[in-house]
Amino acid sequence: MKNYLVIIALSVFFVGCTSIDPYTGQQKTSNTAKGVGLGVLAGAILGAATGKDNDDRKKRAAIGAAAGGATGAGVGYYMDRQEAALRQRLQGTGVQVRREGDTIQLIMPGNITFATGRYEIRADFYEVLNSVTLILNEFDNTSIKISGHTDSTGGNQTNQTLSEQRANSVRGYLAGQRVATGRIQAVGYGPRYPIASNSTASGRQANRRVELELLPM
Question: Minimal CA–CA distance to 97: which of 127, 74, 131?
Answer without folding.
Answer: 131
